[in-house]
Amino acid sequence: MTATIPNLPSLYEPFSTEAKWQKFWEDNQVYKADLNHKGKPYCIVIPPPNVTGSLHMGHAFESALIDSLVRYHRMKGRNTLWLPGTDHASIAVQTILEKQLKAEGKTRYDLGREKFLERAWQWKAESGGTIVNQLRRLGVSVDWTRERFTLDAGLSKAVLEAFIRLYDEGLIYRGNYLVNWCPASQSAVSDLEVEPKEVNGNLWHFRYPLSDGSGFVEVATTRPETMLGDTAVAVNPNDERYKHLIGKTLILPIMNREIPIIGDELVDPAFGTGCVKVTPAHDPNDFEMGKRHNLPFINIMNKDGTLNENAGEFQGQDRFVARKNVVSRLEADGVLVKIEDYKHTVPYSDRGKVPVEPLLSTQWFVKIRPLADKTLEFLDQQNSPEIVPQRWAKVYRDWLLNLRDWCVSRQLWWGHQIPAWYAVSETDGQITDSTPHFVARTETEAWEKAKSQFGENVKLEQDPDVLDTWFSSGLWPFSTLGWPEQTPDLATYYPNATLVTGFDIIFFWVARMTMMAGHFTGQMPFKTVYIHGLVRDENNKKMSKSANNGIDPLLLIDKYGTDALRYTLIKEVAGAGQDIRLEYDRKKDESTSVEASRNFANKLWNAARFVMMNLDGQTPAQLGKPEPTELSDKWIISRYHQVVRQTTNYIDNYGLGEAAKGLYEFIWGDFCDWYIELVKSRLQKDADPTSRKVAQQILADVLAGILKLLHPFMPHITEEIWQTLTQQPAENPQILALQPYPEADEKLIDQTLEEQFELLINTIRTIRNLRAEADIKPGVKITANLQSESEKERFILNAGQSYIQDLAKVETLTITDKTLIDEPKKPSISTKSAFKGLKAIGLIIVGLVFLRVGIIVGNATLRLPLFGTFFETVGLGYAGWFVVRNILTAEGRQKLFTSSSEPTDSQNISQSEATQTEESDNSIAGVVGTVQVVIPLKGVVDIEALRAKLEKSISKAEAEAASLSYRLSNPKFVDKAPADVVQGVRDALAEAEKQAEILRVRLRTL
């Protein structure tokens, strides 16, 4: 009975395959963490994307890195949990909802807080799952049963507990402080929600007169409207121009307020005039100077960006309208000096899309220094957490050293409402800066506290503000596991093994997590922080919304498949923490980088099909472990275990890109291009049964190992192939993701054999290249001669002779230690030839003597001077010509000495050399290390036709180079054409010149 041979479809279809396995993994809860698992815990909590977000390339890159690590450690036997979740994104959600309400002609105040929050939760239910569903398409191996949301009941409890504890310990306080204020959303925003933009602005110069009438000082500013809140002018105390003015006072124009001149080293003498206006309520640097010099803090701005009563005649005007009007007034008063064009950076609210305003505001703050100092102790004393790559540890440490108190309140409704209640009955029903407040877990608890102080008639109102989103995110590594309760998950999976995140949020998230964790749990939240780079576009620019140069990962997934995109993003990483570049054609929405990875997937698919078609329907387990006997078998087994060791070492040290590249080279090169080709003849039905069985065993065993090695990077295609290769049942199949990761057997690694086999591969490659250069047709078998003086090299060449002949189409192969092509020998002169030459010289001399005698006799006889001189001249001329032609030149002597005689030894040598030279000229040669490779061409190709073809190609390349060179010699083209066009021509010229040189070398070789 013939066994059924399982096989794969002829074409790999990534889209149906990926969807199938994503559904299977989730439906069967394949990645659900098991508390009873005996392995060492390995936990990663997902960096929570905003619930408003959609998948961008940064998400895809980070998720691919994390999933590769998680899948690897799961296969290594660890008790693995990758916990997913999303962030509630206060500002983003509120912005969306307020835009919807504005379209309806309403505001949130028309709905009221309760109805507004109902609408927010409805939006979350309908639209908030977009990013999660898109993450699913990446095939991430997360435990969806443990999915968290920063506003769910458990995390809300953790946030409340953290706030209460910090407040009770004196680490949270309410105070008046300078914050980033977004007039559009009318909320304080974090530094991360501020995007610096370079703008073309102005620098306004105006004069402040000295109070004593002795002169004035000139200041320069980019925000002239803020001068209405100035409370000083500052100079550097070491500035010789102004140090004598320190302590004097000025009259503030328009406001006619007397303000002091102070000395502060923060002032840069080189900026503007060296004198700076100080507005402590509207500038971070001025705020610090104001505290140092006990200056008044005058706020001139309302929360909507208009000016308030402290702005005098400009009250009620929008800040930018007021700017123009203030400048006009200064000009009218004669104190405006000049206006300069000035390019500078302005901070914009990422959500409100307007310039933020540094604003003095009463907010809730976390006293950061005690938290940061404790975190620094972990770093300095325990190197905890370990940061990879190490260079980012200094950046992290610098942030911790320079942190200021953290403003955690936001003037929003969507989020964790601050658990503070105000006794508004004590301040006329209003919440003011002086209204007494009570922090409590519930309103009842707060009322009990207030009643004890103000009696039963006290009226309370909860603080309307919510906490900064980063407050709840700072608790994420342990709140997601059940803290503040001591849950089994927390006991098992905390601290997390690894945090994978970008360098751009080291401060905004990483530092806040470590500070919160150090304070609340007494240990760092993760053992290692792996800092990755950014994905840059095809022009090596950072992808951003403002630059509009993002690349939609879903578009590439739809075109090439998830595995292809994942593998590309990981393979592009060259060293931990490095940015990667993704090639992308925006006109066609195509990527050559991702296409190359799809081709790699197809290569693996086709190789797997070939292997399975030649296993006679048997699985790797049925075939059994191989015992290699042949050279190629031992080589591929050694290479396989070498790659297992290499891949493991790379991943353990976060060299994911290097691991992916190493697998690519092994799978495509060693396994597909070489080993499969080498064993094809052994797989024939009439081949030696023992050899055939060994070849089958090795093919099956190595393929199964390859699928396991590659699975963390390309999970879908490897799962599909493995299921077929191992013939898993449709019901309750084993899953590749849960199989043990391969381990290297050091005894099977033979470095010497690998180096020797590399000689065979390079020899075959050289012969193939020479065939291509000589235009030898693929089906034509050739003669090849190999020469090496090394006995070791000749031994390995002889051992692999059949491989060379089979894969390079060589019919006759000679391996020798003799030189294959000698240098032409110089002609030699025999003794016999030399004697004949001397005899000839003697005859010539005798001939000349007789000739001279004849001339003399003739002259004496004829006696006529003219006639006699003529004969003498002719005779001497002929003698001179004979000597020059036959005696003075080597060629003449050779002809003279060898004329009128039988063929000599030298003639025989010349004929032999001519034959050898002809043979050399009709061969093509190459070198592999110290091995010389010669392929005779006579009778294989038409030498003259090949020479003519090469000459024609050389002429074409040279003509192209000349044309391009002419274009570049034209100054008009070089100066006026776009830079990328000119560079393109230069690149084309270099390519044409290189091609011409390669062709000339081929012609010379021929």
Automatic annotation (TrEMBL):
EC number assigned by the record: 6.1.1.9
Sorted UniProt keywords: Aminoacyl-tRNA synthetase, ATP-binding, Coiled coil, Cytoplasm, Ligase, Membrane, Nucleotide-binding, Protein biosynthesis, Transmembrane, Transmembrane helix
Protein's job: Catalyzes the attachment of valine to tRNA(Val). As ValRS can inadvertently accommodate and process structurally similar amino acids such as threonine, to avoid such errors, it has a 'posttransfer' editing activity that hydrolyzes mischarged Thr-tRNA(Val) in a tRNA-dependent manner.
Compositionally biased region (Polar residues): 898-915
Domain named Valyl-tRNA synthetase tRNA-binding arm: residues: 942-1006
Subcellular location: Cytoplasm; Membrane
Residues spanning the membrane: 493-511, 840-858, 864-884
Catalytic activities: tRNA(Val) + L-valine + ATP = L-valyl-tRNA(Val) + AMP + diphosphate
InterPro entries registered for this protein in UniProt: aa-tRNA-synth_I_CS, aa-tRNA-synth_Ia, Anticodon_Ia_Val, CAAD_dom, M/V/L/I-tRNA-synth_anticd-bd, Rossmann-like_a/b/a_fold, tRNA-bd_arm, tRNAsynth_Ia_anticodon-bd
SUPFAM superfamilies (alphabetical): Anticodon-binding domain of a subclass of class I aminoacyl-tRNA synthetases (SSF47323), Nucleotidylyl transferase (SSF52374), tRNA-binding arm (SSF46589), ValRS/IleRS/LeuRS editing domain (SSF50677)
Primary residence: cytoplasm
Motif ('KMSKS' region): 542-546
Cyanobacterial aminoacyl-tRNA synthetase CAAD domain sequence ranges: 836-900
Source organism per UniProt: Anabaena lutea FACHB-196
Binding site for ATP: 545
Coiled coil (residue ranges): 940-1002
Chain location of the short sequence motif 'HIGH' region per the record: 49-59
The name this protein goes by in its record: Valine--tRNA ligase
